[in-house]
């Protein structure tokens, strides 16, 4: 399965994927998006390698995705790769955005478990070790959920409201206060690779897949260096991708508004006709006809928009080409 997908996206199958001797330690992949992190990336790598050094029973690979940095991050990454044979750097030709960078990293990851984390130390490396423990205990996906976060009050407030709003209007159960810091086991990572839609909201895709998902509470740290690479514009786009990708609430709203407008229009029509028939002295000539036509057309248009919208919604979900269903395993009589 994974081989065919890799072939489709034109990516060579990494060496580790082919060899699976029972004796060799299990490989854990870290997927690490980098955008203009020159100030902190070296420190990050040291922290991460120090953390994983406490768990020598695994092999590790660190896949940095340089998302078109313009500040010399790439040179530092090359340096890191020179000194650490476990490092691989995927260098984007331009800035494609955080969600795409994660996707590329996942495409190259060959580990039995894949951990996605930010490279600004807001996602603490020690928490990723706890994720590994949860994975060993049987979790297929481990989500890191922020108990607290040290961002600006504005960011905290908007994020808090947004996650709850999205959850209330979404068809899938998207966990609140959960970003992209998570562990996926090999099966879950393979499935996530089959989602190739362009407007990506990875936390929603993972939530929609199913599997045994566990939450891990953690306290989100401050950024070690530099400033957020998510300006308002990118944040709004991500928020919109979340809503339009995982909710049909806006469409349903149009349809409901259509019904409401039509109902009000009927009332208005009855009112203006009644006036015309029983109190002709107060109505201006031509007013009744004008009101009837205007109200009726307004309601009808709103309703039609809703109907068209619901078809567009279907076209949209068809072109996303998400998997129809996801199988964890097929068990046959002789294996059971
Ligand atoms: N990032 C990226 N491409 C972008 C923006 C951000 O790869 O266009 C990376 C960034 O280097 C960091 C992670 O995504 O590792 C999260 O970004 P950031 O810390 O700026 O977001 P915040 O934590 O402020 O939400
Ligand atoms: Mg950050």
Explain what this protein looks like in three dimensions:
It holds the Pfam family Glycos_transf_2. Its EC number is 2.4.-.-. It comes from Saccharopolyspora endophytica. This is Glycosyltransferase. It is a multi-pass membrane protein. The structure is a single chain. This protein has 336 residues and is an alpha/beta fold. It has two domains: 8-247 and 324-335, Spore Coat Polysaccharide Biosynthesis Protein SpsA, Chain A; 249-320. Helix content is 51%, strand content 15%. The protein contains twelve helices and seven strands. The protein has a seven-stranded mixed β-sheet, sandwiched between helices. Helix 11 packs antiparallel against helix 12. It is elongated, with a radius of gyration of 26 Å. The two termini are 22 Å apart. The site of magnesium ion has 5 residues, from loops.
Please summarize what this structure is.
The protein is α/β, with parallel strands linked by helices. It folds into two domains: 8-247 and 324-335, Spore Coat Polysaccharide Biosynthesis Protein SpsA, Chain A, CATH 3.90.550.10; 249-320. Helix content is 51%, strand content 15%.
Distance between the termini: 22 Å
CATH fold-type name of the largest domain? Spore Coat Polysaccharide Biosynthesis Protein SpsA, Chain A
The overall pLDDT average reads: 89
Name the poorly predicted regions. 1-13, 15-20
Q: What is the CATH homology-level superfamily of the largest domain?
A: Spore Coat Polysaccharide Biosynthesis Protein SpsA, Chain A
Strand content: 5-15%
In CATH, what is the class of the largest domain? Alpha Beta
The level of helicity is 40-55%
């Amino acid at each position: 399965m994974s081989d065919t997908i890799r072939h489709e996206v034109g990516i060579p199958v990494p060496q580790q994927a082919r060899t699976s001797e029972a004796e060799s330690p299990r490989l854990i992949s870290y997927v690490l998006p980098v955008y203009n992190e020159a100030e902190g990336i070296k420190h990050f790598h040291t922290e991460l390698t120090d953390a994983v050094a406490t768990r020598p029973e695994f092999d590790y690979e660190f896949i940095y995705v340089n998302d078109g940095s313009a500040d010399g991050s790439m040179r530092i990454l090359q340096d890191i790769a020179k000194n650490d044979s476990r490092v691989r750097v995927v260098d984007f030709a331009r800035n494609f955005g955080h969600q795409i960078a994660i996707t590329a990293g996942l495409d190259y990851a060959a580990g039995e478990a894949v951990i996605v984390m930010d490279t600004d130390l807001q996602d603490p490396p020690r928490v990723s070790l706890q994720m590994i423990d949860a994975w060993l205990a049987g979790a297929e996906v481990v989500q890191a959920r922020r108990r607290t976060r040290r961002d600006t009050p504005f960011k905290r407030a908007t994020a808090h409201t947004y996650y709850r709003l999205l959850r209330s209007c979404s068809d899938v159960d998207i966990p609140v206060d959960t970003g992209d810091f998570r562990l996926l086991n090999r099966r879950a990572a393979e499935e996530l690779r089959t989602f190739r839609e362009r407007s990506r909201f990875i936390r929603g895709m993972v939530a929609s897949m199913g599997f045994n998902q566990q939450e891990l509470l953690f306290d989100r740290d401050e950024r070690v260096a530099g400033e957020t690479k998510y300006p308002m514009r990118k944040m709004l786009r991500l928020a919109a991708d979340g809503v339009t990708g995982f909710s049909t609430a806006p469409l349903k709203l149009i349809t409901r508004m259509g019904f409401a407008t039509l109902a009000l229009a009927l009332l208005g029509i009855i009112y203006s006709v009644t006036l015309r028939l029983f109190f002709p002295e107060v109505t201006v000539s031509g007013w009744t006809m004008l009101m009837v036509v205007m109200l009726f057309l307004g309601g009808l248009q709103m309703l039609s928009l809703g109907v068209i919208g619901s078809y567009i919604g279907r076209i949209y979900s068809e072109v996303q080409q998400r998997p129809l269903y996801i199988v964890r395993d097929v068990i046959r009589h002789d294996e059971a």
